[in-house]
């Protein structure tokens, strides 16, 4: 029974070790698309392989085979560059094997009586193993914190709060060892201590796993919300295109009748009536006009819409689109989201300002390698910036302020960026996108 417990403990340690390594790889390698239960199966298989190697009890074999198994795990479970996998394997091996060597060295140097105490038998070996894995876990979490993508990493304050728990647990474990607590007269107490030590280790891992899972859910929610917003914008844009087309169709249908009427009035020498009718007809055409700024219908629709809205608010709106301006490589939904957000912000700011001006320029740069969208608008309200990030001044901050962030994220998709500057009551946004068709 005792041997079975020891084997089960060692197997659990191997599973925990592979789970930590799997999470570490997942931090910078792309996980192959599969169901989560398949990941569990992979972790169990590789844990059994490590368990089998450890059971041979050959140090040289262990040092040679274990890193190979780690590398095979990276090959089997993840996509990505081979050199990245080799580098990840090297770091993972150093962390896992290095912490074992360091902890054993520290304990042997600082506590010689440990060798002679009751802590040297199996229960003490269990405690020592749990301490080693706790240190390994903390080291992996620190590395992951500084190498994670911005959307997946904790902010510094949150990480300090979370890391306090495993550090406290590690301190308790070390204290038990260095206090030379002897449980020779009560083996049950030893077993209870080991069980709770192991629970502390699993509990600490669960805390970070729970946070990561919660963070992913929040990211998914924000992505879904952004997708819904973009789809609404796209739908609104298409509706505007259809409305504009309907206006033209109606005008073209009625033009024939208008021309006949004007011709009839001219024949009767009623020039004033004919001119009056032509004037009304031209007014209708102007209202239905969608200016052809470029060969892109979506771009023309959005610019025409904001030109019309600006005119109604007495905003001076100057639009220049360079001949040959290329935006065809951008998905329509992305184009709608970027332009609608930028122009909406410019329109709202200009409408509230004293100067009431908007200037839009679209042109190519570096022999057509980049598409540049430059928008300038007047403003009078206060610009709020926090940690180099623009903050909304609107009351409902939960839903507002996502526009600029959305534009930045879409720009990154096209290897581009968005920069914003402001001075002398003029706000300037410059959006640069890499032309993939070049």
UniProtKB/TrEMBL annotation:
Gene3D superfamilies according to UniProt: Histidine kinase-like ATPase, C-terminal domain (3.30.565.10)
Pfam families, per database record: HATPase_c_5
Residue ranges of every copy of the Sensor histidine kinase NatK-like C-terminal domain listed in the record: 333-429
GO molecular function, one term: identical protein binding
InterPro entries: HATPase_C_sf, NatK-like_C
Entries under PANTHER family matching the protein: TWO-COMPONENT SENSOR HISTIDINE KINASE (PTHR40448)
Protein name per Swiss-Prot or TrEMBL: Sensor histidine kinase NatK-like C-terminal domain-containing protein
